[in-house]
Specification:
Blueprint lengths: L1 E2 L6 H16 L4 E5 L8 H12 L1 E2 L2 E2 L2 E5 L3 H9 L7 E2 L13 E2 L7 H18 L1 H7 L16
Parallel strand pairs: 1-2, 1-7, 2-5, 5-6
Antiparallel strand pairs: 3-4
Amino acid sequence: MIRIVGRAAVERARDFDDAVRRLVGEGVRELYLDLKDCPLLDSTFSGAVALLAEERVGSDPMIRFVLVDAKTRIVDGLSNLEVLPLLRVAEPGEAAVVSGPLVDLPVSQRSRQDAGEFCLRAHRALMALSPSNEVRFRELESMDAVYPVKDGQ
């Protein structure tokens, strides 16, 4: 389980991606996201969730996310961005039976270049989910001139 305290925003999206990939490397395939103390997920963070949820290992998802204590605002935002179908919302009390360590999401200092590249990748993942997201985030494509995304990222 990863606990996110405070805003899940662009500044934390890359750290989230790194933490999830580390846990996947340790064999984790289902990850509960404790959002009790998280007031919102911005579009970059939502895109990071979508990137990870859509990544495959063979025919299986690399990771399955389960949202715990997500506020209505967060669930509605993920639904509007077409990310919610990639996730599962925990039933009340379900997380109480989760075994394993609770990991707080760290916040590290990232370069503007790294943050910009990741922001663009995350929004491209959202744009791929629906035409309305493509229209909503089209202007971000101009970031590619400043933060070119490398092939395979």
